[in-house]
Amino acid sequence: MISIGKFSKTCHVSVKTLRLYDQLGLLKPVYIDENTGYRYYEPDQLDTMIAIQRYKRFGFTLDEIKTMLDRPAKENVDTLLVKQAALLVQKRELEMALRDLHILIERLERKEEMTQNTFENYTIDELEQKPLPVYGLRKTMGIGDFGTAYSEIFEKLYQNGVKDFGLTGSRYFDQEFDEGASDIEVFVEVDPALANDTIEGGTMIHTTHKGPYSGLPEAYAAIVKWMEENGYEQAGAPYELYTKCGVNHYPLDQWETDIYFPARKKGE
Predict the structure, then answer these.
(1) Structure confidence by residue, pLDDT tens digits, 189-204
(2) How far is CA 151 from CA 2, 64, 246, 261, in A?
(3) pLDDT in tens, 112-133
(4) Cα(212)–Cα(99) distance, rounded to whole angstroms?
(5) Which secondary structure element, helix H or strand E, spans residue 154, and what is its range?
(6) Burial (Cβ within 10 Å: 0-12, 13-18, ≥19) of residue 125
(7) Which of 36, 124, 183, 240 lies at 20 to 30 Å from 176 by C-alpha?
(8) Contact in structure between 241 and 258 (CB atoms under 8 Å)
């Protein structure tokens, strides 16, 4: 058997972490000395430790790792494929962030203001939008919960025999934004007969954001600045339509998000 100290040194993991893994049922020692409380492991458990470290590197939580270790390895293929797709999106977002950083450095070297040209990237327009019938799910959630929420919507639609629907989108009801817990409705466009909600029509201030969602705050800022400068105020919950996105198989750099702010002239 291998002592906890040697096991710790071999795998480059602290003794404290090994004790945590024991408590969580991730990796239990095969023997604990009754007199000293010292833990010992079998050589085969080195394989399990390597698997845990690998899954952590991929971004899985300890709860997710425990679930994966408790079932045959071949049953983890779908889970790994989903994680692979998510990591590829993160990779492309990082590449675009590096590109934007390079552009920003060049601007600053030319002694331009940091925000110069940012708002010029957005065309703001006022338009009349028709009511939008949707099948939505509204609850307190974070941005990271969107995937699960959309899966729930798609599953319900498929159960009702609905396979064709319009764009996906989301609507934000809170006055303040909390990335981890906000009052949000995610939805898909559907025929009126299938809708469980309708987004009100009327006057909208609109723009289109191109690229990953990490840049959406710039688009929102551009709309709010335009509204302030032109005497408009918000008159309802803003919403997004994902015109081009991963769901309809567009690459990250071609994603387009239409943003709509219900609005009215101040004082009306």
Answers:
(1) 999 999 999 999 999 9
(2) 45, 18, 14, 26
(3) 665 555 667 799 999 999 999 9
(4) 13
(5) helix 146-159
(6) exposed
(7) 124
(8) yes
